[in-house]
């Protein structure tokens, strides 16, 4: 029996709000953007950046709390159906082997029971599982800062498009410094700027090697 289609869903909504406001993000930017010649983002860009950070924060909390429980539930459900599949498969084989010796009434009862199990599997595969608890199988579990570092960096780069500065990944550059400043407010972790820079470089290298960039 293949893994049923009910391990996926369609709709995911992350909570609105979050720890980031334009004021708090502006303060972080003031601490991070200290090199000369770099323009700070416009007010509109800061609002967009704040919203993006809150989305990332919501996704992390959603995955680490709800989706994690959903993954565990999905695993138990799948294991239960595997057990039932073996149970009914064994009964079916017994009936087939003893077709000529078992009373017809017993064979018919077993067939009806097996058909109901088959109907249940079909119904599960055709159903759109769209409740909050169903998302575990459709999104990656986010377990720590490395899982969101690139998303935070990407939001920062977008906000800084018109800054005039270089947004590289040097160990003391603005990108890893911004990510390191933001991460504690999302995951309660405190990675060093150097560790963030290394993680972002590893991510960029992996993308190049997989051919997902134009380089």
Low-pLDDT sequence parts: 1-15
Report the end-to-end length measured between terminal Cα atoms.
42 Å
Rg, rounded, reads 26 Å
What fraction of the residues are assigned to beta strands by DSSP?
Answer: under 5%
| Fraction in helix | 55-70%
Apparent shape: elongated
Q: What string, H for helix and E for strand, traces the elements in order?
A: HHHHHH
Structure description:
This protein is an all-alpha fold. The N terminus is likely disordered. It contains 6 helices and no strands.
List key phrases describing it.
disordered N terminus, single chain
Note the topology.
Blueprint: H1 22-32, H2 43-97, H3 104-126, H4 149-159, H5 174-187, H6 193-210
Concise description?
The chain has helices at 22-32, 43-97, 104-126, 149-159, 174-187, 193-210. With 215 residues, the protein is mostly helical.
């Amino acid at each position: 029996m293949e893994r049923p289609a009910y391990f996926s869903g369609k709709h995911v909504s992350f909570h609105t709000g979050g720890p980031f406001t334009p004021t708090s993000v502006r303060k972080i930017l003031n601490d991070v953007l200290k090199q000369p010649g770099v323009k700070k983002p416009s007010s509109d860009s800061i609002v967009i950046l704040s919203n993006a950070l809150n989305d990332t924060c919501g996704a992390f909390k959603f995955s680490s709390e709800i989706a994690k429980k959903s993954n565990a539930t999905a695993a138990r459900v799948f294991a239960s159906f595997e057990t039932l599949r073996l149970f009914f498969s064994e009964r079916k084989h017994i009936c087939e082997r003893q077709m000529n010796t078992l009373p017809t009434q017993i064979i018919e009862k077993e067939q009806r029971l097996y058909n109901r199990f088959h109907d249940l599997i079909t119904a599960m595969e055709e159903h759109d599982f769209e409740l909050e608890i169903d998302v575990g199988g459709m999104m990656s579990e986010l377990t720590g800062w490395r899982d969101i570092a690139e998303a935070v960096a990407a939001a920062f780069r977008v906000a800084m498009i018109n800054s005039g500065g270089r947004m590289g990944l040097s160990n003391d550059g603005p990108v890893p410094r911004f990510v390191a400043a933001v991460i504690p407010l999302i995951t309660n972790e405190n990675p060093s700027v150097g560790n963030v820079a290394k993680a972002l470089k590893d991510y960029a290298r992996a993308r190049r090697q997989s051919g997902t960039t134009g380089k």
